[in-house]
Design goal:
The chain has 56 residues and is an all-alpha fold. Helix content is 70%, strand content 0%. It is elongated. The N and C termini lie far apart (61 Å).
Length: 56
C-alpha cells in the first residue's frame, strides 16, 4: 500500500485521484480523431437513418 508511516488511503480518495488524472489527460488533448469529425460522422449516421425511415 502506502509507506510504513502513512495511513492507507480510502477508496473514495483513490477514485477522486483517478478522476482528476483522467480530466487532466483529457484537457491536454492529443486526441487521435478531432471532435468535429466525430460530430460530423454522428450527424451523417442520424441523417441516413432518418432518410431510411422516411423513404420506406
Amino acid at each position: 500500500m502506502d509507506g510504513p508511516d502513512q495511513q492507507p488511503r480510502s477508496r473514495v480518495e483513490r477514485k477522486r485521484d483517478r478522476i482528476r488524472a483522467e480530466i487532466r489527460r483529457n484537457r491536454e488533448g492529443g486526441h487521435r480523431v478531432p471532435t468535429w469529425v466525430l460530430a460530423a460522422l454522428l450527424g451523417a449516421l442520424l441523417l441516413g437513418w432518418l432518410l431510411l425511415i422516411v423513404t420506406s
